Amino acid sequence: MELYTYHRSVAAHRVRIILNIKGLSCDYRFVDIAGDRLQRYQFRALNPQGLAPVLVDDGHVITQSMAIMEYLEERWPARAVLPKDLLGSARVRALAQLFVSDIQPLHNLRVLRYLRSRHDQGEDQLAHWSAHWMREGLAAVEHLLASSAETGAHCHGDHPTLADACLVPEVHEAIERGVDLSDFPGVRRIYGTCMTLAAFQAAAPETQMDAAGLVEPISS
Fold first, then answer.
1. What is the pTM of this model?
2. In 105-136, which positions are buried (b, 16+ CB within 10 angstroms) versus exposed (e)?
3. Architecture per CATH, 2-79
């Protein structure tokens, strides 16, 4: 099994967490999705969007982080990251989708590149844009966490789920960008709890080989 990943990709970060929680062995293939080398390495032959992550399992190519994470959950149900009850599973999926569909797409690399190149937005304006959408989304997460008895040490109960795997990369990105998170104590508490666990620590962007410049982006 191979995971095409990039250390700064929030979406790839989620998948690395799930792989670690489940204790699955996976060969990482590092792709420079932020650089011009992407097309030279023909990564788009695997994913027409040219985005990470991509999972290749037994020759089958799976794109999109949510599809990959749910595939891993269904194929290897041990160390489950979705609750067994329908309502619990729906709640975890809803929290996860808030990060995946509503927050992260608005501040990803492609959007910022477009705003910079087509609308002459400067770095301060881009930072304000990103912080606005992060904080708006995290405010909704904070409310959902605070208003539910299902919230425990983690987003749902006392074990990490798909929701935690989506929360941590988004909060990490917000911290890296200097976004003020003081209004979100529940989010910060769960982030802190997760980051005491080896599965989350090992998935962090700064621990990846491509972050340290130890590997060259590969061709597919």
1. 0.93
2. ebbbeebbeebeeeeebeeeebbebbbebbbe
3. 3-Layer(aba) Sandwich (3.40)
